[in-house]
Amino acid sequence: MEVVISTDKLTKKFGDFVATNEITFEVAKGEIFGFLGANGAGKTTAMRMLCGLLKPSYGSASVAGFDIEKQTEQVKQNIGYMSQKFSLYEDLTVKENFRFYGGVYKLKRQVIDQRLNEMLGNLGMLNVENSLVASLPLGWKQKLAFSLAMLHRPKIVFLDEPTGGVDPITRRQFWDLIYEAAHNGVTIFVTTHYMDEAEYCDRVSIMVDGVIKALDTPENLRKQFETDSMDGVFQLLARGTSTK
Amino acid sequence: MSALPYIIRKEFQQIFRNKVMLPLLFVMPVVQLVVLSFAADFEFKNLNVSVVDHDKSTASRLLISQFSSSGYFKTEQFFNSSQQALVEVEKGNTDMILVVPKDFEKDRKTAKPTQVQLLINAVNNQKAGIASNYAQQVLNIYNKRNMPQFASSTNAVMPLQVTFSEGYWYNPTLDYKTFMVPGILAVLVTMLTAFLSSINIIREKELGTIEQLNVTPISKFEFIVGKQVPFFIIGMFILGIGLTLARLIFGIHIIGSPVLLFAYCAIYVVAILGLGMLVSTLTETQQQAMFVTWFFMVVFILLSGLFTPIDSIPLWAKAINVANPMKYFVEVMRMVMLKGSGFSAISTHFGVMALFAVAFNSLAVLSYKKTN
Fold this sequence. Notes:
The structure holds two protein chains of two kinds. Chain A is α/β, with parallel strands linked by helices. Chain A has helices spanning 43-50, 72-78, 94-104, 109-123, 138-150, 168-183, 195-200, 218-224, 230-242, and strands spanning 3-14, 17-23, 26-28, 32-37, 58-63, 66-67, 79-82, 156-160, 187-191, 203-208, 211-216. In chain A, helix 3 crosses helix 4 and helix 5 (138-150) packs parallel to helix 6 (168-183). Chain B has two domains: 4-40 and 175-367, no CATH class; 47-154, 3-Layer(aba) Sandwich (abc type-2 transporter like fold).
């Protein structure tokens, strides 16, 4: 098994507040790794460190074989990222967005256009190529944002609550995209608040107050916490902290 | 292969798609240049003069008509005492009071020194200073014209007089517009480029797109330069429009080398864009960026020498002004446009501006952090 993400006591402090407290875990190539936790549990902070957007206070991590602190730019060449905040340019067309980001990754024009065609074809959205992003429904934008994050064929894709505010059918389609990518060997690192989505993951970690409280396959977690759903697992762990 | 062309293309696409900003970019310079240049005129006409004539003689009436025929003064209000006239000053109806003393004519005929009194409303001290100046000129003319009369009547010998024969270089007719247009153009170029660049990166911050960019391997240099090139082109374009308008509307020709002017403007715009980018990287919202930029603009403009001669400002203000890029640009605009200065005359200006450009841009690149 090839390890593509590994962290060692990765920690981020903001003043006295410890957002991420010595988390240590590994993610294998092609895995769909679910990163769960309540709001403010430290998921986004951890993810931002792994993407090279935040410097760790201490501890270390490597992504795609590169150190996140010393080889930040190499890490960035190998990852895709879809943030919570929607990040396509609304005032550009779909094609213009793809050409721009493709250019930033130094892809050739023909390569960009070819991949864009392929991706839009798969999504059944070839007709929106020249539409302004602002004119598209949210679900479509989310699928486009995912495609954009995959444009430069990254080894790992980080998805920060990618399906927030999206209807159930589009969510299902979105997960089809994730499965397909994972099938092609791309590692998926995804945060979510939807427990049904957690069931789709190969392995799930649950963060509580900056610490990873549980990490295993959904099946094993259900057994461990003697409940029949991931929702139950989550409730048990989250309640544990509120009574602390 | 560089990402630069892609970044530049994207910025232009966004600029040209902005239905509010784009027209503004072209309309604003035209309107401001035309309106401001006519409005920022220090000439005063039709100053209201209240007359208190205690003499009521031929000589006094001659003096008063001298005022009204000068074109600068309107002498329509007459009062019997200064007190009455002062009421009008308080109401704001009159700009100054001319008091002609009793025996004015008699004194002049007997060649006794005599005085008339001018009471000037100095709420606007600039206007008051100019009014006093005009009045002095009117009096001089009056003295000159009426000199021979009494000189012959008293058989006095004309005193030998030394007078100035004035010639105004670079602006022969002392036209305010000739003086103001290059300066206002400098301000326009500065404002547009400073505001556009300072809100640009902020916009990406507010929309969240900057985060998407920060996870790409884009280099800081590519990012900053890619953001600046479109605004640089816009800045130069506005200078071009402005110079054309200056020629067509105000008949101001560039006496010096246009190439030199554009070259200086190029370095200047790079410096201002660097400052804008710096503001943009250090602030969090468009509102903050606008306020910070306004602060700089107001200080820059008031100390630039555009409206007031900077030779007369206090020493401490002069010390601050060394760091005012706009001051150098206004100077260069006037020197090259009106005086025809060559490179050797403004080489120091070039050096200083190059320093600004390097300093502001280095700081901008340094303060833009992809990783926090």
